[in-house]
Amino acid sequence: MIFLTAIPIATVAQERSYDSLLDEEKVWTVKIESLGFNDTNVSYMEYKLMDKTSIDGISCRQLFTRHKQDDEDEWGEWQPGEFGGTSYIGEDSEGKIYYYRPNMEDFLLMDFSMQEGDVYRFDDDEDAPAYIVTAVSDTILENSFDRKPRKCIHLARRFNGEILTEDYHRDVWIEGIGSMKDGLMGMEFFHLSGSRQLLKCTQQGKVIYQNDDATSVQGIKEQPLADTVNYNLAGQKANASYKGIVIQNGKKVIMK
Questions:
Q1: Which residues, including other chains, have CB under 8 Å from residue 198's CB and lie 6 or more apart?
Q2: Which of 38, 81, 166, 209 has the fewest CB atoms within 10 Å distance of its CB?
Q3: 78 — phi, psi (to 5°)?
């Protein structure tokens, strides 16, 4: 099993900027395995967000998707919404991510202000599936072009007071990227129809997340933050004597 490598970083001394999910020209590619009577159907879906607007005072973009089957070479046309119709992804200044669809109930998809031990539900219904935050970490993704530190929220389903440990019951939300299960929606929306896995997220054609193996959310490790490490522009560790531009806590710094 291949895991995506993440580099732990130190707690940032200065306040760093929040990485918005709504930044322009992001595309999410998701692998879908739908359970059939005799076999498993594999297809792929891509998301993108366009046309910035405001709903209830919250900044939003309209959701578009396109699809293709595993045996197809070409993608279908971009269409509005996940299942047809108009829908939006919203994000407030505190890092709360919302799903809006006209004339339907709205959902809180994620809250990046949560801390370890917090309990999370998609809505206020006490009968709705409960998740517990098992870890919160700042992580630099090794294959991300910008090497930016991003907050990761690790979730696990909780049933009858017990935390379920199987991969099927776990998810990781990455700041500015979304759910490792589905990119923009999270595992709760689709778990009855099979499984989904985020393969890639790009911004302006550059990779900020990639997991070609797509087998486990273990790819983002639940690990403590370590000492500050500097990297040169090639992504290699730079020692203390290095002179020039380095990436330090996700920012370019000149070492003299």
A1: 28, 29, 30, 177, 178, 179, 180, 181, 182, 183, 209, 211, 214
A2: 38
A3: -65, 130
Structure token digits, residue 228: 């500050």
Compute the distance between CA of residue 247 and CA of residue 106 in angstroms, rounded to an integer: 39
Report the SS3 class of residue 188. Answer: helix
CA separation for the pair 194, 41 (Å, rounded): 9
CB 10 within 8 A of CB 225: yes
Nearest Cα neighbor of 250 from 213, 214, 208, 202 is 208
Q: How far apart are the first and last CA of the chain?
A: 42
Question: Which residues have CB under 8 Å from 199's CB, separation 6+?
Answer: 29, 30, 31, 44, 210, 211, 212, 214
Query: Per-residue pLDDT tens for 164-212?
Result: 777 778 889 999 999 988 888 876 655 555 678 899 999 999 999 888 5
CA distances from 59 to 39, 96, 185 (A): 41, 11, 17
Distance of alpha carbon 177 from alpha carbon 47, whole angstroms: 12
Chain-centre distance for alpha carbon 1: 21
Report whether 142 contacts 159 (CB < 8 A): no
SS3 193: helix
Alpha-helical (H) ranges within 2-160 are none
Please tell me the distance from the alpha carbon of residue 113 to that of residue 175, in angstroms, as a whole number. 11
Q: Which two tokens stand for residue 21?
A: 């999910």
Convert the pLDDT of each residue in 116-158 to its tens digit.
888 877 666 666 668 889 889 888 887 788 888 888 999 888 7
In one letter, which amino acid is 243? K
Residue 222 has which token pair? 């639940």
CA–CA gap between residue 25 and residue 36 (Å, rounded): 34
Q: Look up the pTM and report it.
A: 0.74
